[in-house]
Design a protein that fits this description.
58% of the residues lie in helices and 13% in strands. With 69 residues, the protein is α+β, with helices and mostly antiparallel strands.
């Protein structure tokens, strides 16, 4: 895991209303969220018990679909 050191923007009463992050931290957070989404989708697909196809075959199907348009 990584350490995030946010800066806060507050209103005139001192209430935190926004966060400022270094771009490196923001990109790391986005990458983690994307990985979690991939894991969630994988878990969902495994639960569905639908038949799967090899990735090479899937790419060929996708490419054929693109060419037909």
């Amino acid at each position: 895991m990584f350490t995030i050191q946010p800066q806060y923007i507050t209103d005139n009463t001192g209430k935190k209303i926004s966060v400022v992050l270094p771009i490196k931290d923001f990109k790391a957070i986005i990458a983690e969220l994307e990985e979690l989404e991939d894991i969630r989708l994988y878990d969902e697909a495994k639960k569905s018990n639908e038949p799967s196809i090899p990735i090479d075959e899937a790419f060929k199907m996708i490419e054929a679909e693109r060419k037909s348009k």
